[in-house]
Amino acid sequence: MKKALVCSVCGHILLTKSIPDVCPSCCSGTKIFKLFDEKENALHTKEDVAVSGETEKKHLPVVKIVDIENGYKNIYVTVGEIEHPMVKEHFISKISIYIDNELVSMTLLTKDLKPETNIKVKTDSKNISVVAQCNIHGSWITSI
Known about the structure:
The chain is mainly beta. About 5% of the residues lie in helices and about 40% in strands. It has 1 helix and 11 strands; from the N terminus they run ββββαβββββββ. The strands form 3 sheets. Strands 4-11-10-7-8 form a 5-stranded mixed β-sheet. Strands 2-1-3 form a 3-stranded antiparallel β-sheet, with no helix packed on it. A 3-stranded antiparallel β-sheet has the order 5-6-9, with no helix packed on it. β10 (about 130-135) and β11 form a beta hairpin. The longest helix is centred in the middle third of the chain and has 7 residues, at about 45-50. The two termini are about 15 Å apart. The model is unreliable at about 35-40 (pLDDT under 50).
């Protein structure tokens, strides 16, 4: 598990070490950020999946990046090697895409949608991270 800063209002994950004046997701003030506790609300990683087994493989974002013309990339994200269920009791609520630890895209999901998203972005960065937020099992990160 990995520590990160989280907004206590909306649950947005902040990957940078510096705290902004407002949350990039809900615009709440800086006093709302706190460190993740290592025992709960942790940011889960690929290493956790290897230990946890097949059930947890439904939570880790799977990222595919396709280079296209003029420096643009298509970033495709699905949640889970095994597709995550999307039912009223258990679903992925948000998928956030970061480039160089800065939020560039956030997709809010409901139980009626597939746990996936995609964006087209102009970047030459190799530092791309995706966080999927499950309403039961917390936040999961894949970094490329």
